[in-house]
Amino acid sequence: MVDRELVSAVAHSHHPIAAPLSDASVARLLSRAIGANRRHLLDLGCATGEWLMRAAASHPHVTGVGIDLDEAAIARGTDAIRTAGLADRLELRVGDAREAVLDRPADCVLSVGAAHAFGGLLPTLDAVRGHLADRATVVVGDGFWESEPTDATLAVGFERDEYADLATTVDRVVDAGWAPVYGHVSTAAEWDDYEWSWTGSLTDWALDNDASAIAVAARHRSEWLRGYRGVLGFVTLVLRRAE
Ligand SMILES: C[S@@+](CC[C@H](N)C(=O)[O-])C[C@H]1O[C@@H](n2cnc3c(N)ncnc32)[C@H](O)[C@@H]1O
User: Fold this and answer.
1) Tens-place pLDDT, residues 131-171
2) What pairing do the DSSP bridges indicate for beta strands 178-185 and 232-241?
3) How many angstroms from the chain centroid is the CA of residue 171?
4) Which of 68, 99, 108, 112 to mutate to test the pocket of ligand 1 (most atoms within 8 A of CB)?
5) Contact 139, 46 (CB under 8 A)
6) Which protein residue's CA is at the shortest distance from atom 27 of ligand 1?
7) Contact 111, 128 (CB under 8 A)
């Protein structure tokens, strides 16, 4: 059976951002979060460092550090950073984002699709707080319930209280002392593109390389289409500390 890290690498080959966000949405979120003056970025749960690479490519003054547990993703991302000529500004490290010790605060901390590592959205924001420079922004992306989870949603492994509806999700963030200064709710088209890319890239690769991966793609596709399509939403918030 094909291993998890290889599945993830192949599944994201046509959609390197591991979240349901289009290239335009990522660019707009980065532009709002970096603004004119923010220089140093930190990405907690960076995978291959795709957010950092895009930030550095579009903002020539930006430097960044990314941390992820996935050694293979860090190795691939480090190669890509070198090839893109960004190695003097970006560094990826293998490590646990919950225990990250950095030598400088960040002007912008990113953590998209990695809230499970910290135990949810609010614990992620608690963890981020210690890394923030003055006037810093946070870009955090996580799920919410677009509609009530069905029995089929719960049957594919989600917990009802894992997420809340969008308004409640944002209220909780605000109540925890954060000010949303921008945000993006992934559209149905962004979700479909992400899931078709994930399942389709893996299926395409499996047909040529390892037939056992066809079942992995089919299972993911079925869980998406039957379990959470139109039920699970994804919101990416740009936040600043309110006080
Ligand atoms: C869904 S991916 C998102 C990757 C990236 N932020 C993006 O949007 O493309 C979640 C990432 O979190 C990483 N991760 C999970 N637990 C972690 C931890 N404790 N420390 C660092 N990274 C972690 C996984 O290895 C994975 O690469």
Assistant:
1) 999 999 999 999 999 999 999 999 999 999 999 999 999 99
2) antiparallel
3) 21
4) 68
5) no
6) 47
7) yes
Model confidence pLDDT, tens digit, residues 161-178: 999 999 999 999 999 999
- Dist. CA 74–CA 2, nearest whole Å: 19
For ligand 1, atom 11: residue with the closest CA: 45
- Token couple for 227: 């379990």
Packing angle between helix 4-11 and helix 212-222, nearest 10 degrees? Answer: 70
Whether 20 is in the pocket of ligand 1, judged by its Cβ within 6 Å, is no
118 CA closest ligand 1 atom index: 19
Residue 243: per-residue pLDDT = 75
